[in-house]
Amino acid sequence: MLIRPFGWNEFLIIVMAAQWTIALSAIAFAGGGVGGLLIALARVSDARWPRLLATGFIRIFQGTPLLMQLFLVFFGMNILGFAINPWIAAAVALTLHASAFLGEIWRGCIEAIPPGQREAATALGLRYVNRMRYIILPQASRIAVAPTVGFLVQLIKGTSLAAIIGFTELTRQGQIINNATFSPFMVFGTVAAVYFVLCWPLSLLARRMEVKFSRSTTR
Amino acid sequence: MTEAKANATVAAVRGTSDLAVHMEGVNKWYGAFHALNNVNLEVSRGERIVICGPSGSGKSTLIRCINQLEVIQQGRIVVDNHDLTAGGKNVDLVRQETGMVFQSFNLFPHMTVLENCTLAPMKVRGISKVEAEKTARRFLERVRIPEQAEKYPAQLSGGQQQRVAIARALCMNPKIMLFDEPTSALDPEMVKEVLDTMIDLAKEGMTMLCVTHEMGFARQVADRVIFMDRGEILEMGPPDTFFDNPKNERLKNFLGQIS
């Protein structure tokens, strides 16, 4: 068996694999956005059961490694009779993971809005849905932008674990190329550099929004 | 005054009672703390009530029960013939008919003054935007800040913010106004502009319940002054007897301390 050298071609293959990392991140982020909003609303609900269920969901996903979550969804789907499909398993697991974390982040943002805002809206006769829609969520979302982008960075890096269940994204592509070229430092250096190029601008953006927010929160 | 007359006619046509607020045997606890202790109070339409007392005496809790920002554990509250204790739709109706002004203004910081004033009329009453803005500008004129309509709350002084809060409440065309220490968070030089707005409102015949430490205001506009301590109403009466001839020992003490 021939060992091929790590060249321009191999480099491009790795860089191109970033599209699957981006696609998986985007799906998990979009799904987690919807799930996270539901979890956050359930967490601040006046009703006991939604609150308890959402808390349990968050505790489970915060208290277990992402890799185990991927394994459980991947093998669990098989037990439930679905064909093994790394794409669906990775998307479902990361969506659930993102829902839990975004739910907890956004709960904090909702609770950071002074109770007087809810009281004033209530006193004006606005009911729950309108209070949330026009008063609480618009204010909470301003605080939420920076930590949400911060979590997106975590999520992008987290997708690398999907390589272990055989989902061919950036990291998995690196492993494949490494098996052929046997120059791990070059290969994984390239992989790391691509992650960095994806994540660093987002980190900068998050920090900048944090500064902007802290300036604009004077009430 | 015409508004008061119109209200009176409506009440007569409906055959409703003259009471704006009726509280009967109201009790409330926060854990072991007895926040309201067997409170009985009847407020007639058009009446101006001032409630005073030391901090923690239950005066804020009392008026917050009237629009059910606080839920009571015992007793009965009827506001404008809607029995709050019966729950359900009554709570929504009562909230639509009572305006509330808070110590900390509680304007919506992400909306302009005009948007603050038009949101509830549009979303709760279903009034068109054009109509709601017309009403809002009229009330902003009445609280003497029409030129601030496009600004955000953070760009206004405390006194201006509180006047916007009053205008915002009035835009819902409430029958009862609740004031929860409206001047306590203001710098001294801004207290007067807010009190003047409240005095105007009182002259127009609005039913008002005000928690305040402004005794000058109480003397000038109140029909009755109430003294509360430890969740109980201890004394209640017209301002002159209340201030000049108080009977309750704790009230005498209290008046001695604040004057």
TrEMBL record, chain A:
* GO terms, molecular function: transmembrane transporter activity
What are the subcellular locations of this protein? Answer: Cell inner membrane; Cell membrane
Question: What InterPro entries does the entry give?
Answer: AA_ABC_transptr_permease_3TM (IPR010065), ArtM/GltK/GlnP/TcyL/YhdX-like (IPR043429), MetI-like (IPR000515), MetI-like_sf (IPR035906)
Q: Which GO terms describe its biological process?
A: amino acid transport
Q: Cross-referenced Pfam families, in alphabetical order?
A: BPD_transp_1
Q: Where is the ABC transmembrane type-1 domain?
A: 18-206
Kindly list the residue ranges recorded as spanning the membrane.
Answer: 12-40, 52-75, 87-106, 143-165, 185-206
Q: Which domain of life is it from?
A: Bacteria
GO CC annotations on file: ATP-binding cassette (ABC) transporter complex
Query: How would you describe this protein's topology in the membrane?
Result: Multi-pass membrane protein
* UniProt KW Transmembrane helix keyword: yes
Identify the keywords attached in UniProt to this record, alphabetized. Cell membrane, Membrane, Transmembrane, Transmembrane helix, Transport
User: Could you say which protein family the record assigns here?
Assistant: Belongs to the binding-protein-dependent transport system permease family. HisMQ subfamily.
Q: What is this protein called?
A: Amino acid ABC transporter permease
Organism the protein comes from? Aliirhizobium smilacinae
**Organism lineage:** Bacteria, Pseudomonadati, Pseudomonadota, Alphaproteobacteria, Hyphomicrobiales
TrEMBL record, chain B:
Entries under InterPro entries matching the protein: AAA+_ATPase, ABC_ATPase_HisP-typ, ABC_transporter-like_ATP-bd, ABC_transporter-like_CS, MetN_ABC_transporter-like, P-loop_NTPase
Q: Which family does it belong to?
A: Belongs to the ABC transporter superfamily.
Q: Give the UniProt keywords, A-Z.
A: ATP-binding, Nucleotide-binding, Transport
Lineage, uppermost ranks: Bacteria, Pseudomonadati, Pseudomonadota, Alphaproteobacteria, Hyphomicrobiales
Q: Name one GO molecular function term.
A: ATP hydrolysis activity
Q: Does the keyword ATP-binding apply?
A: yes
- Give the top-rank taxon of the lineage listed in the UniProt record for this protein: Bacteria
Which residues belong to any copy of the ABC transporter domain?
21-255
Q: What is the protein name for this chain?
A: Amino acid ABC transporter ATP-binding protein
Its source organism is: Aliirhizobium smilacinae
